[in-house]
Amino acid sequence: xxxxxxxxxxxxxxxxxxxxxxxxxxxxxxxxxxxxxxxxxxxxxxxxxxxxxxxxxxxxxxxxxxxxxxxxxxxxxxxxxxxxxxxxxxxxxxxxxxxxxxxxxxxxxxxx
Amino acid sequence: xxxxxxxxxxxxxxxxxxxxxxxxxxxxxxxxxxxxxxxxxxxxxxxxxxxxxxxxxxxxxxxxxxxxxxxxxxxxxxxxxxxxxxxxxxxxxxxxxxxxxxxxxxxxxxx
Lengths: 112, 111
Prior knowledge:
Chain A is an all-beta fold. Chain A has strands spanning 9-13, 18-23, 31-38, 45-50, 55-56, 61-64, 70-75, 84-92, 106-111. Chain B is mainly β. The relative contact order of chain B is 0.34.
């Protein structure tokens, strides 16, 4: 799986958009970008994933650059409950479902 | 409720003892994964089972073992416990590697 680089921490004002960057310059053509988050001591929660097109769901948007070497997770209107550690994971999709490897992630603090 | 059930939620035991953590995966998911998260540490992959068979091993100690039963639930056995084994233990399940669903974890405290 390709290595990812994320800032260790970020702050965001409540109600504003939170933009969390992730670099994955060694990503290969068949690797997907996944985002998970972990709210304090809870199990990680799936947010979104994508291959090369931008994706949006009820939780967030995922913007992947054209060269796929970086991506941004966007929480459009951050709330205090979005305070969590956000993990960007790059891996091949496979039917066997091999494990996810978590790095350090970005600790997002949403402030009032 | 994520659909992945872990029991017990909390466990306090003494050094040298053995405990069993249980995980019921989401309905239809064939893969079960176990992770360990020590205080302020990252999530460390321990072991994966797929439809009853061991699929992958991570940084799992020899004192630890796991299995997946025909009904697909899984158990993680931790023996000869040490203070350093105190951690959150998470189970996750997936179907075809699309999205992975995590349980709420078991907090193990070794005293």
